[in-house]
Design a protein that fits this description.
- The structure is a single chain.
- With 79 residues, this protein is an all-alpha fold.
- It is 82% helix and 0% strand.
- The radius of gyration is 34 Å and the shape is rod-shaped.
């Protein structure tokens, strides 16, 4: 094989090796991002649980406060 062919093979090998190294680094970064996103999703779930809507006791609380509301509505307002 002529010298120029060997140089071409070596240069092609270096280019392929550089591309493979770059792709490997991308894969490693994506794995790190995946782990971080997993933690973020877990944190968001905890926040969603802690800030969920008022429990089912709200209707009973409203029923208990109905006399107060009726009294407040009976007070003549301005206007």
């Amino acid at each position: 094989m002529p010298f120029v062919a060997w140089v071409t093979v070596v240069i092609a090998g270096l280019i392929i090796a550089a591309a493979a190294l770059g792709l490997f680094r991308v894969v490693m970064h994506l794995r790190a991002v995946d782990a971080t996103l997993g933690q973020v999703v877990g944190g968001v779930r905890v926040i969603a649980e802690r800030t969920s809507t008022v429990p089912t006791r709200l209707p009973s609380v409203n029923a208990s406060l109905r006399p107060v509301r009726d009294f407040a509505d009976s007070i003549p307002g301005e206007g």
